[in-house]
User: Fold these one by one.
Assistant:
Number 1:
Amino acid sequence: MKKLLKYLDKYKWITLLAPLFKLLEVLLELLVPRVVESLIDVGIAKQDQAFLASRFGLMIFLGVVGLSCSVVAQYLRQKAPLISSEISGWI
């Protein structure tokens, strides 16, 4: 394992950031049902237009940030085969 880790030293940021962005994407996706729940329970029940607008804005924000995290994670994941072929050439 130590032998393999010395080759990954050059790619440590990619190996750390790809799962981090994927985790962030999943967490943001899990927040959406909670926002919808509060939208229905509070905003629609009390007919609070300002609250509804803020929750819709939050849902759009979560969607945009989640999509951005997904794109970055996929970009970093796309680099993984290049890294593995380079490391296999060293070994």
Number 2:
Amino acid sequence: MNIRKLSIIIPAYNEANTIAQLLYGVVNAPLPSGIEKEIIIIDDCSTDNTALQVRKVQQSNPNAHIIYTKKTKEKDLLYEQVSNWQTAKLS
């Protein structure tokens, strides 16, 4: 199996005080050569400034592949996104 992309899924709920530090750590974490990183933040209806903090990290790291999505009460975005991804079988 040849892995080319690592998807890191981060659930968040009212994490305005901690999300930026976490994201900077993940963005700067080294990976083996040839593997790209995508960071997916699933916000579970935060009522604080979590989204603003994520945007600040996105703006200060334009080359980082950071995806932010906010779950709504009407539908489960995490389920929708994950159900469309391919699953790798590890042996």
Number 3:
Amino acid sequence: MRGNEARKLYPEDQINENPMEARIAVIQNDIANIKENVGELQVGMKTANEAISQLQVGQATLQGSMNTLRQELNSLREELKGAIAKLESALLKWIVGTAISVASVAFAIAKFVK
């Protein structure tokens, strides 16, 4: 627009009230839709928070179970170490006893053979 052209001082909408009322009605409708959407979001957030709290309870229960299993595994490990030590001791005694018995038999045979 050139500076020397005449401009309207008021937009047409301000002179004629009907188009402005239509715009206001559209804005009011949009605000109502926004309120409805926010309400739905609040419901969704509430549901999500409840689900998160249930997950947190489940996680705490799972951690407790894991700690119990860890303790039981440590207990079993100690029992197995003890059992293995007993078996090693018994095996060593058997080997020594067998070696002494074989040596005794060998000396007895050698005494009779001579």
Number 4:
Amino acid sequence: MYLWVNILIPDITKLQNNLLLIRNVGGWTAEVFGDMIGVTKQTISNLENKKTEMTKTQYIAIRAVLDYEMEENPNREMLKAAVNLAFYTLMKYLKRIRKKDTGICIRCAEDWS
């Protein structure tokens, strides 16, 4: 279980910007996903189409559902990847890619030794 004390507006924005992708990767209809977090399918649609801004309460509910789904279903690699992409920049991913032979990070030239 996670405790969110200081939720940053950029995190809420990132989740809202990627909500449709995450929901589709999870295989949920707007109605099913809405039921999971306690809102209507219209609310999900409004969030995905940016007709309304995501509230902190909605953010917490969505993150709780996503965290639960990823923890209870460890074989949902695509869902984990979609959630990670929503919160981490491409550069952070590139920094994790290393060249096997040298231990040097590709694109950022960090030493991984």
